[in-house]
Amino acid sequence: MNTEEVILYPQTEQVMNAFIHQFWKEKQKLTQKCVCEEITDTQIEQLKCKGIPQESRPLEEVMEEMTEEIFKYRYNANHSRYLGFVPGPASSLSWLGDVMTSAYNLHAGSWMSCPAASCIEQALLAWFCRQAGFTGDSKGINPGGIFVSGGSMANMTALIAARNKVLSDDTQHLGTAYVSEQTHSSVAKDLRIIGVTDKRIRKVPTDAHFRMDMRALQSAIREDIAAGFIPFVVIASAGTTNTCSIDPMEEISALCQKYGIWMHVDGAYGASILLSKKYRHLLNGVEKADSLSWDAHKWLFQTYGCGMTLVKNRNDLFNSFSANPEYLLDLAAENEHFNAWDMGVELTRPARGLRLWLTLQVLGQNTLSDAIEHGIQIAEYAEKELQKTADIEILSPAQLAILTFRFAPSYVSEKEKDELNQKISKKMLENGYAGIFTTQLAGRKVLRICAIHPDTSEADIHNTVSLLNQFYQELCPGKM
User: Fold this and answer.
1) Which of 5, 220, 359, 378 has the fewest CB atoms within 10 Å distance of its CB?
2) How does DSSP assign 341-356, residue by residue?
């Protein structure tokens, strides 16, 4: 018996073909299903007790088990009415590219290991740099980046480069970083991981539009300098998670240049607007940043996880992450090529960019631009539908496909309003028609819509708003 063939290449072709056929049938019926499938405590306990068998099991049986007992239970981000958090509606093209890349099991850490895939990733990163306005110059400064697992790793990669660029080993304990009250929580987590304690993370207030307040930022920087600290990075948001507010890029850039501070833009969600012909101007000023994070598995419709760290000067990544141990000398890159493992944390890494390359090649820029713009227009339609109900208060208007609102009848207290909106969200999730969750904004519990799925229709939104109103009437009978 050829043991290697049995272990590494079991007879899966027929079973895989059947699975793909079944998966496709389920995908076509997706809108007829609930947006979330809850699992019971009993089912969880059964999974815990499953264990690992001593003897082999039929492949078909295990695949069926995974489909029915594991994959089935989830919040379905691919559903056109899943409007919660920042959903990850994945294109079938990305899924195909992901399957193809996994099948070939590429080690994309070095150029030599897979030169063609490395070439595609580097060319793709250069293209995204150009979309962000990161261009080279005659001094040999070239933009670049690396594909990573997602926004958390993308931000941390850039923050490490910022720390090492601005601070020395002797001054790292003095470095201060600046975020806003609306900055994604992962940024503070990343800063703590790289050695910046909470005592040196400044949380800057936001203005009436939930953007970083520039007077407060400048005041914080000046106070830190006077106290002997060294401001080393300001993290601007290109689309905050709660409201999709965009921090004032031009003003932040001017302040960073004045004080010699690295400017990083967390664009994990909102950077995708740069591919829209109609709305890319909303991120004017991002080209002045030193680095940018960008998640393709959000608004570019890729499977998890496909994030990017882009930098104006790729040498800043190389200087932070290049190691060149003796056992890898044979794989050292030459000429204009470079190894991905010299640009980020990972040594062993998959070729994350190939699924995105396949998607762009098949769809083209125009189709992707239209899909992004559709999300903005659907959110604007949702706002108009919500405004038809007198007791609905819009907390933040539709921008970059996100809006927040709440049912706020005048006859109840603020605490009761919070409880009411939480109950409405719960009833919607139990109903399963749409995914509507809550968040905290300005100290209030609010409902939130993130409408980036390219298949979300006006009918989906109209029916969702109608259901929300129905649940409101049930919870507050006779008060409408």
Assistant:
1) 5
2) GGSSS-SS---THHHH
Do 260 and 94 form a contact (C-beta atoms < 8 A)?
no
Q: In this structure, are residues 180 and 203 in contact, taking their beta carbons and an 8 Å threshold? A: yes
- Which amino acid does the sequence have at 219? S
Closest of 414, 425, 419, 430 to residue 468, by C-alpha: 425
Q: In Å, what is the CA distance from 256 to each residue of 48, 234, 321, 335?
A: 51, 7, 24, 34
- What is the SS3 assignment for 41? helix
Write out the two tokens for 279.
């709305």
Output the CA angle 387-420-413, nearest 5 degrees. 90
The answer to whether the CB of 280 falls within 8 A of the CB of 327 is: no
Number of Cβ within 10 Å of residue 409's Cβ equals 16
Name the phi and psi angles at 202, rounded to 5. Answer: -95, 120
Contacts 24+ apart (CB under 8 A), 249-252: 249/283, 249/284, 249/285, 249/286, 249/288, 249/289, 250/284, 250/285, 250/288, 251/214, 252/212, 252/214, 252/217, 252/285
| pLDDT tens series, the chain, 480 aa | 465 565 666 677 777 777 777 777 777 666 777 898 889 999 999 999 999 999 999 888 998 899 899 998 989 888 999 999 998 899 999 999 999 999 999 999 999 999 999 999 999 999 999 999 999 776 778 999 999 999 999 999 999 999 999 999 999 999 999 999 999 999 999 999 999 999 999 999 999 999 999 999 999 999 999 999 999 999 999 999 999 999 999 999 999 999 999 999 999 999 999 999 999 999 999 999 999 999 999 999 999 999 999 999 999 999 999 986 554 555 555 556 789 999 999 999 999 999 999 999 999 999 999 999 999 999 999 999 999 999 999 999 999 999 999 999 999 999 999 999 999 999 999 999 999 999 999 899 999 999 999 999 999 999 999 999 999 999 986 554
Please state, in angstroms and rounded to a whole number, the distance separating the CA atoms of residues 198 and 191: 8
* Residue 206 near residue 171 (C-beta atoms within 8 A): no
Angstrom distance (rounded) from CA 296 to CA 356: 8
User: pTM (2 decimals)?
Assistant: 0.92
By the 8 A CB rule, do 237 and 266 touch? Answer: yes
For 199, phi then psi, to 5°, come to -70, -15
Strand partners, 266: 237, 293
The Cα 329–Cα 351 span in angstroms is 21
> CA 291: distance to chain centroid?
16
Region of residue 194 (phi > 0: left; psi between -120 and 50: alpha; otherwise: beta):
alpha
Bond preceding residue 364 cis, omega within 30 of 0: no
